[in-house]
Amino acid sequence: MEDQIMQLILDGEIHPGDWLREADLAARLGVSRTPIRNGIAKLASTGVVVYHPNRGAQVRQYTAEDVVEIYESRALVESFVTGLVAEAIEKPQLARLTELSAQMRAARGAERAQLNGVFHREIITVRADHPLASAAENLVIPLLLHRVMASYGPKASERSMCQHEDIIQALEHHDRAWAESAMRTHILFGLNQYRQRAEA
């Protein structure tokens, strides 16, 4: 159930700062309140939702400083996991990443940003057995909520997609150092784009 609630958040139907009312969500998703309660608890464990005593659960609001620190953490954690993925990835998983890359080129705005999140999570999932995989995935979510990629201009979007293709190429060669470097470059590019937008 946490996936359905998370999708409502990613689709913009529930916004950062909104309160998650069990009864409302149960009616919207056509289930009882128990699975809703469990889903909210699981989202709280990822940091997407915050519990306030005697008030309930609220979708976390991230400050600009939070976002910068998350990018910096991703540059360390997700790039490391991507290096591990290079040693383990198989052809069907590479084909899926190539498919997502093509879909992103055809998409625009929010749809492209959503596919970007799927692309990153698909990479991390290859090494879901590693202790840092869940941390890497949890660091992706706040940036999806901020829809950073959706605000990219044409040149930045093209550069970002080329970086995705570079990551795929590194993974195809099972080159750990290249894959790690390519992912770090990509994430730091995103950080630079966010800072430019924040300063505008």
Question: Approximately how much beta-strand content do the residues carry?
Answer: 5-15%
Distance between the termini: 38 Å
Topology order in helix (H) and strand (E) letters:
HEHHEEHHHHHH
- CATH classification, class level of the largest domain: Mainly Alpha
Q: So what's the oligomer here?
A: single chain
Q: How many structurally independent domains?
A: 2
Kindly state the number of beta strands: 3
Report the CATH superfamily of the largest domain: GntR ligand-binding domain-like
Contiguous uncertain segments of 5+ residues: none
| Shape call | globular
Lateral arrangement of strands in the main beta sheet: 1-3-2
Helix content range: over 70%
Features:
Arc Repressor Mutant, subunit A, Four Helix Bundle (Hemerythrin (Met), subunit A), mainly alpha, 3-stranded antiparallel β-sheet
